[in-house]
Amino acid sequence: MAHEYAKGFYASESWHKCRLGYISHRRSVDGGLCEECHENLGYIVHHREHITPRTVNDPSVTLSWDNLEYVCKECHDRIHDYCGRSSSDDGRKIIFDATGNPIVDNSPYCVDK
């Protein structure tokens, strides 16, 4: 989920064009494989240097292909440490339905390789 300060950027025509162009390019290179694991298909265009309130208006961070990579869900979750588990973690994750209500998701988001 995008931070509040980045929602406008992610809704912009510039980002949509950049994202689609990058995905198309990656598909032409290797069929769209994840640039991290090279095993799964890409799922999300990830910013290597993360967007922050300071960089959200900097096209060299937000729109430069040099700062993008096409990654699978598992690698994206690993990069952001969404898979971090504590000793009391039962493996369930919280996601949100279409209306924004939290629901428990028992699907295997994080895959140990």
Characterise this structure.
The protein is α+β, with helices and mostly antiparallel strands and 113 residues long. The chain has 4 helices and 4 strands. The strands form 2 sheets. Strands 1-2 form a two-stranded antiparallel ribbon. It has a two-stranded antiparallel sheet with strand order 3-4. A hairpin with a 5-residue loop joins strand 3 (93-96) and strand 4 (102-105). It is globular.
Rg measurement, Å: 15 Å
* Largest beta sheet: strand ordering: 1-2
- In DSSP terms, counting alpha (H) and pi (I) runs of 4 or more, how many helices? 4
Shape: globular
Ranges with pLDDT <50 over ≥5 residues? Answer: 85-89
Structural class given helices, strands, pairing?
Answer: alpha+beta
The SSE string, one letter per element, is HHEHEHEE
Largest sheet: 2 strands, antiparallel
Q: How widely separated are the two ends? A: 25 Å
Beta-strand residue fraction: 5-15%
- What is the helix content? 25-40%
Q: What's the average pLDDT? A: 84
Number of DSSP-assigned strands: 4
